[in-house]
Specification:
The chain is mainly α and about 210 residues long. The protein has helices spanning about 5-10, 30-50, 60-65, 70-80, 80-90, 90-100, 105-120, 135-155, 165-185, 185-190, 195-210.
Length: about 210
Amino acid sequence: MAEVRTEADGRAEGSHHAPPTDGSHHAPPTGRRDAEASKGAIIRAARHLLARHAHGDITLKAVADRAGVSAPLVLKYFGNKDALFSQVMSFEADAAMFLDAPVDDLGRHMVRHLLTGQAERGADPILRIVFAPLHGEQGDILRANFRVQVAQRLSERLSGPDVGLRAELAVGMLLGLGVMYGIARGPHLRATEIAEITDRYAPAVQALLTPR
């Protein structure tokens, strides 16, 4: 998702001048920050729409309007609708953060990460798989990505017997929590502190990851 800049790009202008010594050369140029912010807004808008509408019904104009940018800018950054949604349908970046904890603490991390994302950003790292049936052939891509990038990747972190089954059961528990919290919006669940939910729910998830 980030705009790619090569070392040669950085030397294109002012190549005979020494870099500043005040540390300012570490800050990305304003244009790059703006581009990354716009790309992020476009991805978030596309994810929001994909969770509510069939893939075939979503237009680039709708994505652009929600992101607060122009449709030509969406084309500039992503090329076409299929290229944009190929990124939206990938779980790679989300899974990296979702699974970013030692296995012995992974259950707590995943529960907390899932709930915090929904509560603070209205985003869930894995819940969009629930909407795969809306999207026809694109839904098949979403399912395949989910199986490989989330469930299989989790299973590769585990040891012992039946790692694939245990990983899928753990992910299933997390999806159920995400649905109840973010889609059904259970009032008791929503009124409870995330720390308390984590204390109650994470041990059951962890028992699948590191069975005694």
